[in-house]
Amino acid sequence: MHKVIFDTDPGIDDAMALLFLHRHPQIDLIGITTVFGNAPIDLTTRNALFLAQAWGISAPVAQGAGVTFDPSRPEGHWPTFIHGENGLGDVDIPPVIGRTVDDRPAWQFIIDTVRAQPGEVTLVAVGRMTNLALALKADPDFAALVKEVVVMGGAFDLNGNVSPAAEANIHGDPEAADLVFTAPWRVTVVGLDVTLKTVMTSGFLAEMAAAGGASVQLLSDLSQFYIDFYRHRVGDGMVVHDACACVYLVAPDLFTTRSGPIRVVCGGIADGQTIQKPDGRVFPAGHWDGHPSQMVCIDVESERVLDIIRAAIVEGRAG
Q1: Which of 39, 36, 34 is nearest to 5 (CA)?
Q2: pLDDT at 10 (0 to 100)
Q3: What is the DSSP code string of the chain?
Q4: What are the φ and ψ backbone dihedral angles of 16, each rounded to 5 degrees?
Q5: Pseudo-torsion of CA 166, 172, 177, 178, nearest 10°?
Q6: What is the DSSP annotation of 197-240?
Q7: DSSP for 119-141?
Q8: Would the pTM of this model clear 0.85, i.e. be above it?
């Protein structure tokens, strides 16, 4: 079993990833931590509580950062044109939700949970990495106790999606991402190089909803806004960003990876760009030296990834 803390900013594709983590038989979802990104922190936290309640997820929810790791960074605009005004495709959400948040801030919840189960907990982060950076700042030594970090973010051999240089999650908090990538733990980055190749058609999702009951119907309902956004970008369907990172956890053989230290550009016209120095390549001394080699996903068997998502969400099996 993979014990997972899911660091998330729900977010439509976050919702699919959350249901996948909840239903996959090889994953034990032991915590959900929220961060700002697809919506302000009060909305992403409310959305996480709503989904946890709707889907019967018992894992505690801890509210995380509402501003960047460097608070002097100016606040950007919320991507309401992608995720809707409420962050979940503008589906109806009850004004009162029975679930409540954990007493601890997300960074403290992460540290406490990892220290209680050293070497056993994987962090799956699919939003801005502010909570992970805050945990590293508060307790640098806890990094050695984390089993693995899997990140959805970055763009390495292609353009970004919020600028020619940068992907949205990294661009939203570059200083946090750079700290996470250079920390002494094992990181795998599942970025646009593979997620843009993984497109779930509206028909595929509709068939999932028909076979999967009310929980999958809710996922389908809130995803329609997202599908409409992607209509002029990929045609029929939506890009499966966050769930790709979750599939990597249970089926890494479906991904082609490349190793090497990663740095993030912080400032300037390439703000948020992720740059890997591939292992085996020789360059003059520079800013990548002395940092750990991390893994970047550069290709994917996308159809098999979609099949694994369906098997877990609809049938509760590994695929």
Answers
A1: 34
A2: 97
A3: -EEEEEEE---HHHHHHHHHHHH-TTEEEEEEEE-SSSS-HHHHHHHHHHHHHHTT--S-EE---SS-SSTTSPP----HHHH-TTSSTT----SS-S----SS-HHHHHHHHHHHSTTTEEEEE-S-SHHHHHHHHH-GGGGGG-SEEEEE---SSS--SSSSS--HHHHH-HHHHHHHHHSSS-EEEE-HHHHTT-EE-HHHHHHHHHHH-HHHHHHHHHHHHHHHHHHHHHSSSEE--HHHHHHHHH-GGGEEEEEE-EEE--SSTTTT-EEE--TT---SS-TTTTS--EEEEEEE-HHHHHHHHHHHHHH-S--
A4: -60, -40
A5: 70
A6: T-EE-HHHHHHHHHHH-HHHHHHHHHHHHHHHHHHHHHSSSEE-
A7: TTEEEEE-S-SHHHHHHHHH-GG
A8: yes
> Annotated active-site positions, please?
9, 241
Q: Are 152 and 34 in contact (CB under 8 A)?
A: no
41, amino acid identity: I
Structure tokens belonging to residue 294: 């991390």
Q: For all residues of the chain together, what is the average pLDDT?
A: 96
Amino acid letter for position 6 = F
The pLDDT tens digits for 177-235 are 999 999 999 999 999 999 999 999 999 999 999 999 999 999 999 999 999 999 888 88
pLDDT tens digit sequence for 144-153: 999 999 999 9
Cα distance between residue 269 and residue 291, in whole Å: 24
d(CA 14, CA 130): 16
Two structure tokens written together for 75:
């606040």
Tokens found for residue 228? 């409409």
281 within 8 A of 256, measured Cβ to Cβ? no
Q: If we measure between CA atoms, which residue out of 204, 198, 195, 202 comes closest to residue 228?
A: 202
